[in-house]
Amino acid sequence: MKKDIILAGVGGQGILTIAATLGLCAVEEGLYIKQSEVHGMSQRGGDVQSHVRLSDKPINSDLIPTGKADMIISVEPMESLRYLPMLNPEKGWLITNSKPFVNISDYPDINNIVAQIEQVKNHIILDAEQIAKDVGSPRAANIVILGAASPFLDLDYGLIEIALKKLFGKKGDDVVNLNLAALKAGYDFAMKNR
Amino acid sequence: MQKLLLLGDEAIAQAAIDAGLTGIFAYPGTPSTEITEYVQKSKEAKEKNIHSSWSTNEKTAMEAALGVSYVGKRAMVCMKHVGLNVAADAFVNSAITGANGGLIVVVADDPSMHSSQNEQDSRFYGKFAMVPILEPTNQQEAYDMVHYGFDLSEQMSIPVLLRITTRLAHSRSAVERKAVRKQNELKLPSDLKQFILLPSIARKRYKGLLENQARFLEASESSGFNQYFDGSDKSLGIITTGIAWNYLMENYQDGEVPYPVLKITQYPAPRDMIKKLVDECEEILVLEEGYPLVEELLKGLFSIGLKVKGRLDGTIPRDGELNPNIVARALGLPDTYGQDVPEVVAPRPPAMCPGCGHIDVYNALNVVMADYSGGRVFSDIGCYTLGALPPFNAINTCVDMGASITMAKGAADAGFVPAVAMIGDSTFTHSGITGLLDAVNENSPITVIISDNSTTGMTGGQDSAGTGKIEAICLALGVKPEHLKVIKPLRKYHDENVQIMKEEIAYQGVSVIIPRRECVRTLDRRMRAKHLKKEKK
Ligand SMILES: Cc1ncc(C[n+]2csc(CCOP(=O)(O)OP(=O)(O)O)c2C)c(N)n1
């Protein structure tokens, strides 16, 4: 098993929650992991990415080579496109939120962005915020995206549930259940639209 | 032993706690900040009473760590690469005094300048000071090298430089802990003159340092961290330093490199191992995360008789960090690439947060400066540096911490009046105070704006050394009370603030304006913590 994943978003959007969940999955499953994060200047509302590498064999580089990522998981549509040089053009999957995060004055027309996303061979685009709202709170949008990515992760679905329970356990049952529902809603969307 | 999922920074911190650390000293700076933060948050560290509060700058941190070492205990000091410029006087001289308790100087370099003004390579400082350098390739090695580094420092009575780079500092992986060691007992150096660097003593100490180079080299050859791997194809020999090793191995997934490889992670560079590689191979490829230090060493001035490939001959780009693709191309291996970024994607540079007080300062300052010709705002390093970008375009310089005040003074000394300095509270106490004293002593016609958000914002909101003391500091330096103004950077006071700035900038002497409003991020964090506490009750 080997999965190379780019997580993408904007500083402050919390892609590290997805990274932390994948990290817990790896620990639970006894997989090797390397996960590089962005700290520092870009966190002030700039573009941020994280490289997450999971494997049953030791991993060398902290960075994924260009063209070799198995997935881009993005919480923002324009940001999902920024990492196309990283994605395996044949086999790679792009999973992204459709809801733009607009903090620049020249944010492009969202229709042009969606059109580009739809040109990527394997892609799933979903309004994670709306779906999260429907299951309880827009704050779980991240986990909806993770759910939509879950069929392509080569990780047992139950394993991701265990990781979420661990991650949110301290915050009480309501928060855990909200996130489990968000995961499921994302998963269902992906299974219907893949 | 227990396995933890840790950032490179965190692995270093955990190792220091486990290796009997007594005190960690640091000023924040990306990518080094998380080392000290980890110790601050660690329950174990608290139980063991390990010192971990922030220092005012890297020099005070380095000197405090040396003080801990002087009394025989183990100390760590952490900084980003440019921080070592600030601490350089203490660092270079600490090689002459030597260490008593184990002393590790951790410096995190930032090749490709993700969050920095330059990409200087700290190994040159280590070489310059003639101390042993450790350069781990991964999180586990970082952990192990801290244990080894403290022992090495005590055995050789020398501070040890631990050099890491961004991708190791900020990447997470599993780390296995070692047995925990107790802190050292208080024990002064056996020679109580050792730390008195009067010329007569310093000369002796320096000769000792020179003699010790052979022992440092011997440690490099025999510690086991530098490794030689044989390969059947001797047409090429490869040297990697630090994390370049990972990028090499990424290109040989089966772990079999056809060429001999020397993996360097400890310096002085291991002479015998390098000689073996050079004798065996026709050409040498040097892969270094940083400047071409080993490459220059091999090449000499005229590269007589040895073909060396690397950053100097264009095989590897001269600047920037390495990655697996750069290494693949250097080896003539097939490269991979996805698709180009579509044109529709717009850049998304970092920006000041909505509601940030610096924004209100710039909105007022821009109105005032519109009355003068341009190029008059000397600024500094922090969140407010983002005022250089549109829509503000409000500042003209950002060089090194504290340079706003002193550069404004120099410009004013040269007749360029008015000159304005724009600096943050943490940067002011880091390196601005001495410059302000210079300006006061000559009553230079400058206006210093200390934009006080009561935190070290850019690096994530660490305590700021001057919180609650800024006016007192300025007055004590001799700033006239009638030209020290505290204002509130809020939209509703805009006109009033413009007026105050106008008057002070027109004043022909030193004036200080302190716009003060808490950072919106620390405020948010404080409110959330308060809310959580209430909920728990
Ligand atoms: C010598 C040196 N040390 C550390 C840093 C990292 N650094 C850059 S900005 C900054 C914080 C500045 O804080 P402050 O002046 O209060 O401004 P704020 O970011 O809060 O607006 C730090 C620590 C640096 N660039 N140079």
**Helix percentage range of chain B:** 40-55%
Strand content of chain A: 15-25%
Second rung of CATH, namely the architecture of chain A: 3-Layer(aba) Sandwich
H-E order of chain A: EHEEEHEHEHHHH
Oligomer: heterodimer
Portion of residues in beta strands of chain B equals 15-25%
SS class of chain A: alpha/beta
Largest sheet of chain A, if any? 6 strands, mixed
What structural category arises from helix and sheet content of chain B?
Answer: alpha/beta
Strand tally of chain B: 18
Distance between the termini of chain A: 22 Å
The total tally of domains of chain B equals 3
Number of domains of chain A: 1
Q: Going by CATH, what is the homologous superfamily of chain A?
A: Pyruvate-ferredoxin oxidoreductase, PFOR, domain III
CATH class of the largest domain in chain B: Alpha Beta
Which radius of gyration of chain B do the C-alpha atoms yield? 26 Å
SS field, number of helical segments of chain A? 7
Features:
heterodimer, A: 194 residues, alpha/beta, Pyruvate-ferredoxin Oxidoreductase, domain 3, 7 helices, globular, B: 537 residues, Rossmann fold, 3 domains, six-stranded mixed sheet, five-stranded mixed sheet, 18 strands, binds thiamine diphosphate
How would you describe the overall organization of this protein?
- The complex is a heterodimer of chains A (194) and B (537).
- Chain A has 194 residues and is an alpha/beta fold.
- Chain A has a single domain (2-193), classed as 3-Layer(aba) Sandwich (Pyruvate-ferredoxin Oxidoreductase, domain 3), CATH 3.40.920.10.
- Chain A has seven helices and six strands.
- Chain A has helices at residues 15-29, 77-82, 110-119, 128-135, 141-149, 157-168, 173-193, and strands at residues 2-10, 32-36, 47-55, 71-74, 93-97, 122-126.
- Chain A has a six-stranded mixed sheet with strand order 2-3-1-4-5-6, sandwiched between helices.
- In chain A, helix 1 crosses helix 6, helix 4 crosses helix 5 and helix 6 packs antiparallel against helix 7 (173-193).
- By secondary structure, chain B is an alpha/beta fold.
- Chain B folds into three domains: 3-211, Thiamin diphosphate (ThDP)-binding fold, Pyr/PP domains (Rossmann fold); 227-331, Rossmann fold (3-Layer(aba) Sandwich), CATH 3.40.50; 357-522, 3-Layer(aba) Sandwich (Rossmann fold), CATH 3.40.50.
- Chain B is built from 19 helices and 18 strands.
- Chain B has helices spanning 8-18, 33-41, 43-47, 58-70, 81-97, 123-129, 139-156, 166-169, 199-222, 244-250, 271-280, 293-299, 324-330, 357-369, 403-413, 425-442, 470-477, 494-506, 520-536; strands spanning 3-7, 21-26, 74-80, 103-109, 133-134, 160-165, 171-176, 227-229, 236-241, 261-264, 266-267, 283-288, 307-309, 377-378, 419-424, 446-451, 484-487, 511-515.
- In chain B, helix 4 (58-70) runs parallel beside helix 5 (81-97), helix 14 (357-369) crosses helix 18 (494-506) and helix 16 runs parallel beside helix 17 (470-477).
- Chain B is globular and about 75 Å long.
- Chains A and B meet through helix 1, strand 2, helix 2 and helix 3 of A and strand 7, helix 10 and helix 13 of B.
- Thiamine diphosphate (TPP) binds next to helix 5 and helix 16 of chain B.
